[in-house]
Every structure is written in structure tokens, then in C-alpha cells.
Amino acid sequence: MLLSNDSVIYKCDTRDLSKICATSMSRVRHQQYVNLSWKMRDGSLKGLFCTAPKSIRSVRRNSGSFNVTAFTEEQEALVVKSWNAMKKNSGELALKFFLRIFEIAPSAKKLFTFLKDSDIPVEQNPKLKPHATTVFVMTCESAVQLRKAGKVTVRESNLKDLGATHFKYGVLDEHFEVTKYALLETIKEAVPEMWSPEMKNSWAEAYDQLAAAIKTEMKPPS
């Protein structure tokens, strides 16, 4: 049985789906073994889904094979390299990041209480830069730690609180997409000499995993 995505093919014996040999197609000599946990939804392989590690985002069956979305070692290296170059200017980049969000979706300002009732121009609001910096650094550090931690982790917070806050203020799927685009554009402008399709895909995958983790926790208070 083959489990594959664009860069990795996962081979496994159907009698032991918890042990998978992952071979990088871009570097054939590189191999790593990954232990996964599996559950059966309905007693058949059609109901099979992966529960760990969380850096493997999804497993879908497709015509007798499984498509796996994972955050690879190569992606981690690209994210770490670019974040090391950016973090000394994280405050300024964070402000650009949020201003880009509001440029694309002006209505997003209504999600922030310190903006929606303020007469001060957005870029001059004293509360914007500290908040933007917190979000930007949290997002980037979550990406950096994703593969090592084996799951999404967030700085100075937890996913349950983040999910509750996003639910409370009515954050929608389109807001996550706008934020993703603004993040990628901000990073592209910050490290143009490093930017590549591979780096773009690396940051996009890390962000998608963070967004998915937050959405999972977006629910009414129990």
C-alpha cells in the first residue's frame, strides 16, 4: 500500500498500519520511520484515519492509496531559516502583516474591539502593534516548533482559549484565508532573497495546521 503526497511516499503493510517507512522523493537516500496511531471509523479501511503525530495533518484514501499531508524536515528547515532572519524585525513585520489584512478585508477591523470603536487611524492606534506582534510571533513560532513538537503549539496561550476567542468574535473561514495570504505576502517581502515556491508551501502548510487546530476549538463555552 502506498501513502503519498507531493514530496513523500509512505509505504506500509496493510497488516501493520502503525509503522510506515517515509521516503523523500527529492532525496531518495533519505529515509525515516514514523510511528502513527490509527482508528477505524466503521470497521473498514474506508473509515481509517490518523490520530498521531499531529504534524501529519490528514490522511485520505484515494483509489486504493492514501494521500498524506505532513510537515517535512525540509519544510521545517525553510521555516526556521526564514524566521531567524525575520524575528529581529518582528514588530515592524507584524504591523505590516495586520495592515495587509485590513487592506484586503477592511471589515476585519470590526473583529477587534480596540479598532471598531476608535476614531484613530488604524496604523496609529497604539494597541495595534503590540497585538499584531503577539499574533505574528505566535504564528511564526508555532511553525518553527511544529515538526519538533509533533503537534501545533502556541506561545503564551493554549488552543482552547484561542478557539474560544475566535468563536466569540465571529471569525469565519474567509478570515483565516485572508490572514494566510497576508502572512505569506509579509514573509515574501521580508526575505525576498530566500523566497521560493518551496518556502511558500512550507509556511502555508504550517499556517494551515495552526488554523485547523484553532478551528477545532471554535465552539460555544461548555
From TrEMBL:
Q: Which coarse location class describes where this protein primarily resides?
A: cytoplasm
Q: Where in the cell is it found?
A: Cytoplasm; Nucleus
Q: Which residues form the signal peptide?
A: none
Q: Which residues cross the membrane?
A: none
Q: Which Pfam families match?
A: Globin
Q: Which GO terms describe its cellular component?
A: cytoplasm; nucleus
Domain annotation Globin: ranges: 70-219
Name the cofactor(s). Answer: heme b
- PROSITE patterns attached to this UniProt entry: GLOBIN, PLANT_GLOBIN
Which keywords annotate this record? Answer: Cytoplasm, Heme, Iron, Metal-binding, Nucleus, Oxidoreductase
UniProt key word Metal-binding: yes
| UniProt keyword Metal-binding present | yes
Under InterPro entries, the record lists: Globin (IPR000971), Globin-like_sf (IPR009050), Globin/Proto (IPR012292), Leghaemoglobin-like (IPR001032), Leghaemoglobin_Fe_BS (IPR019824)
Reactions the enzyme catalyzes: Fe(III)-heme b-[protein] + nitric oxide + H2O = Fe(II)-heme b-[protein] + nitrite + 2 H(+)
Q: Which family does it belong to?
A: Belongs to the plant globin family.
The protein's job, in short, is: Phytoglobin that reduces nitrite to nitric oxide (NO) under anoxic conditions (e.g. during flooding or in waterlogged soil). May not function as an oxygen storage or transport protein. Has an unusually high affinity for O(2) through an hexacoordinate heme iron because of a very low dissociation constant.
Q: How does it assemble?
A: Homodimer.
> What is the designated name of this protein?
Globin domain-containing protein
> What species is this protein from?
Citrus clementina
Lineage at the top is: Eukaryota, Viridiplantae, Streptophyta, Embryophyta, Tracheophyta
